[in-house]
Amino acid sequence: MIAIFLRLLPRIGVCGALALISGLACKESSTPSGEGGSPQPSAWVAAVGAQGSFVQTFDDASWTTRAVASGDLFAVTCFGNLDGWAAGAEGVVEHTTDGGRTWTLQDAHTTVSLRAIRFGSASLGVVVGDGGTLAVTRDGGAHWTTAATLTSTSLRSVAIAPNAGVILAVGDGGVVLRSADEGASFTRTAIVGASDLRSVASDGDARQVLAVDSLGAVWASADAGAHFTHETTAGEALDAVALSDDGTLAIAAGAHGTILERAGEAAWQRVSSGTTADLHAAVIVGEGSARHYVAGESGTLLESVDRGISWSEVTIGTHAALYSLDDL
How far apart are CA 232 and CA 217, in angstroms? Predict the structure, then answer.
């Protein structure tokens, strides 16, 4: 009962705090905050993870860490300058409207662990998790509607292509749940030959969709996730995949520090990460797409400022596992 009570309390943060385990990058306007007229930071990058860890930066230089939930958080996402969401164990969904300073609980009508959350607009969002759980909101999370169960396998990642109205959720056994009507209905397919799918990413138009699996395979779709073909296989399991906003750059990350990079139509290349830690999250940040982050076990956070060619470790003050990264 104590743990439930703690989750219901608003989580008050500090401006500039950083959270990292399931990560995200959000752009925030430089307009006055409305309290004392102090300016808002121009951007924020965050992640969430074990024990409710939340790690956040506003300048890609200084990072702070705190807890915003009593249980593990597996996913984080944001939309616009101030709105963000985090999801995790026991059906927890948290929402911030002030750039991560404070958090309140939303009701997704489930108690299963939620593995991924994504918003395609300030109102349209999707959360997925264990046992095939999938819920959609059309009002920023004020109300969540559970979709009809199409699979009993765990769903581990979700992508939204807002310009195409396409939503894709992937999970164990190569399962793909696809909506072409902004979540009003879903159909179930599977990628033939795929193992457990761990992550999916799409550009805004669904012209490029990528998914990775537990055997290290990278799968690609050029028809909005209706069909996938095999692109490459890493020597290790892959847990994360990310695309730049324009779809020209891609990154995949996984076990034992594995990082794969792809530029344009070139082949996937493995790059040295400098770590053997299992990596669970990847994100490509910014309009120029030069800055990349990956994150994983034992508080590992790595940064590249040259489009994934070289990597350096970021000190964030936590050894908690990091599970997801995202960018706006």
Answer: 6
Q: How many CB atoms lie within 10 A of CB 248?
A: 15
Phi, psi of 97 (to 5 degrees): -115, 10
Say if residues 28 and 99 touch (Cβ distance below 8 Å).
yes
pTM score of the predicted model: 0.89
Q: To 5 degrees, how large is the angle CA 26–CA 183–CA 324?
A: 35
Cβ neighbours of residue 107 under 8 Å, at least 6 residues apart?
A: 93, 144
Q: Which two tokens stand for residue 247?
A: 């779809």
Report the alpha-carbon distance of residue 21 to residue 47 in Å, rounded.
Answer: 5
How many whole angstroms separate alpha carbon 309 and alpha carbon 80?
29
d(CA 239, CA 128): 16
**SS3 call for 3:** helix
Any residues with CB less than 8 A from the CB of 214 and at least 6 apart, and which?
195, 196, 197, 198, 237, 238
Q: What is the CATH number of domain 2-28+41-324?
A: 2.130.10.10
CB 254 within 8 A of CB 268: no
Cα distances (Å, whole numbers) of residue 293 to 100, 154, 306: 19, 26, 11
Angle at 180 between CA 178 and CA 183, to 5 degrees: 75
- CA 138 from centroid of its chain's CA atoms: 19
256-270 pLDDT, tens digit per residue, is 999 999 998 899 999
Contact between 230 and 210 (Cβ < 8 Å):
no
**3-class secondary structure per residue, 200-259:** EEECCCCCCEEEEECCCEEEEECCCCCCCEEEEECCCCEEEEEECCCCCEEEEEEHHHCE
| Cα–Cα dist 328/326, whole Å | 7
Task: Please give the distance of CA 223 from its chain centroid, rounded to a whole number.
Answer: 22
Rg (CA), the chain: 18
DSSP-derived secondary structure letter, 131: G
Closest listed residue to residue 15, CA positions, set 69, 77, 82, 74:
82
Q: What averages of pLDDT result for each successive group of 10 residues across the chain (328 residues)?
A: 38 35 51 39 80 90 92 92 93 94 95 97 97 98 96 98 97 98 97 98 95 98 97 97 91 98 94 98 82 96 94 94 81
